[in-house]
Amino acid sequence: MTLRVYNTLTRQKEVFQPLEPGVVRMYVCGPTVYSDAHIGHAMSVIVFDIIRRYLEYKGYKVVHVMNFTDVDDKIINKARETGEPPFELAGRYIEKFLEQLDALNVKRPTVMPRVSGTIDEIIAMVQELIDKGYAYEVNGNVFFRVRADDDYGKLSRRKLEDAARGDREHYAEDLKEDPFDFALWKAQKEPDEPAWDSPWGKGRPGWHIECSAMVRKHLGPTIDIHGGGNDLVFPHHENEIAQSESCNDAPLAKYWLHNGMVQLSGEKMSKSLGNMVTIDDFLAEHDADVFRLLVLGSHYRKPLVYDDSVVEQAEKGLQRLLGALRPPVGDKTEGPEADALLEAARTAKERFEAAMDDDFNTAAALGHLYDLVKAINTARDAGVGGEPFEQAQATFKELTGVLGLRLQPKAAAKSDAEPFIDLLVEVRSELRKAKQWALADLVRDRLAELGVALEDTRDGTTWSWK
């Protein structure tokens, strides 16, 4: 199958062909580190972790760069509130975020640059833009001339006069040639602000130029994939394109991929609205696989609706998946049941790849995994074991691994209890055959009290942890 991805730049799905055969260069905008990361941050990193994992599954070498913005007004303001030095504050939140990536089973990016470590490259890029006439200096500040870029607006499809500027674009309004121009370099205002020497005096970078410089430093002038949340399309990614392409005389990225936002009770989650759920909050109550299943269950470009009901569905989904990892109870390796299981595993893999090749349609891919779970449980109840059962479970583990699912039972004690639960389920089935309904219900109810849910189907009874 051929991988097709939706490109925000062209507003259509395109066949994915990296610039260099076998290698994918991907840059994803990381967090501004001044407070605890929330599940919106987790959604974005998991989306691009899944994209990276699938590209690697298809044989590509992925060079994945994710930045940390550790120089910013928000960090400076938070540092003033707490009395902590800005870089210590940012560094503390970076280390915490990295621990959270590990807890969420997110593969650490290949390179994780910080703005504070890219100052020389940023200054050089700003100077190049001045030399080319795309930027100008006023009182130690440097601004980008938006109207000098004829292609400005091509990513967001906004006409300049209709474009609402972001908060950061209102910086030093009275100094700009044009209200739509944005800052590349900000002059130092207070002695406690982080600042570096530059040809224009002491100051620090504007927000957008940071990513342009880090992309060029670590991946080159043109990359394969540039990613981030769809709230960054304008103005951040639009301004990145303007800076980078004006400076480098080359396209910034071949494919632009954007994930949707997390929504709580129908509204976007944000710090300003005070409706955040932090990553720590979620992981204190739920397994990391539960959140990953939340993300997988919706297309990455769509909003992720978050409430108790969808979390509960994800919890149940995790238990269904875990049920496919139970050991066999029989040793049948031949016959129609074994053949049906092997065919189900082959079909699931084929359909899984077809779904993922269609712009990383994880919801459809997950559905095919649930089909495989059902086939494994049916074969298990029919006494299939040995190599066919092992092959089916190996396929299941491989595909869930592509999605970054760990699928680890909560405690070893549960694994130890599974043979006894299997025995009780078999006893209950015999009781039902003998029409001993009261005793069968007693077994079911006692198992429920222990956190075991039974499901009676035409193919037999399956069980899972609640």
What is the average of the pLDDT values? 92
Number of domains: 2
Number of helices, where a helix is a run of at least 4 consecutive DSSP H or I residues: 14
CATH topology of the largest domain: Rossmann fold
Distance between the termini: 37 Å
**Pairing-aware structural class of the strands and helices?**
alpha/beta
- Overall geometry comes to elongated
Instruction: Work out the radius of gyration.
Output: 26 Å
| Top-tier CATH class of the largest domain | Alpha Beta
How many runs of DSSP E, i.e. beta strands?
A: 15
**Helix content bin:** 40-55%
Q: What proportion of the residues form beta strands (DSSP E)?
A: 15-25%
Strand count, sense and barrel status of the largest sheet are: 4 strands, parallel
Counting copies of identical and different chains, the oligomeric state is single chain
Helices and strands, in N-to-C order? Answer: EEEHEHHHEEEEHEHEEEHHEHHHHHHEE
Q: Could you say what the CATH architecture of the largest domain is?
A: 3-Layer(aba) Sandwich
Description of the structure:
The chain has 466 residues and is α/β, with parallel strands linked by helices. 46% of the residues lie in helices and 15% in strands. It has helices at residues 39-57, 73-82, 86-103, 119-131, 207-219, 233-248, 279-285, 288-296, 308-323, 336-357, 362-381, 386-402, 412-433, 437-449; strands at 4-7, 12-15, 23-28, 61-66, 135-138, 141-144, 182-187, 203-205, 223-229, 253-259, 262-264, 267-268, 304-306, 452-457, 460-465. A 4-stranded parallel beta sheet has the order 4-3-9-10, with helices on both faces. It has a 4-stranded antiparallel beta sheet with strand order 5-6-7-8. A 3-stranded mixed beta sheet has the order 12-11-13. Helix 5 (207-219) packs across helix 6 (233-248). The protein is elongated, with a radius of gyration of 26 Å. The mean pLDDT is 92.
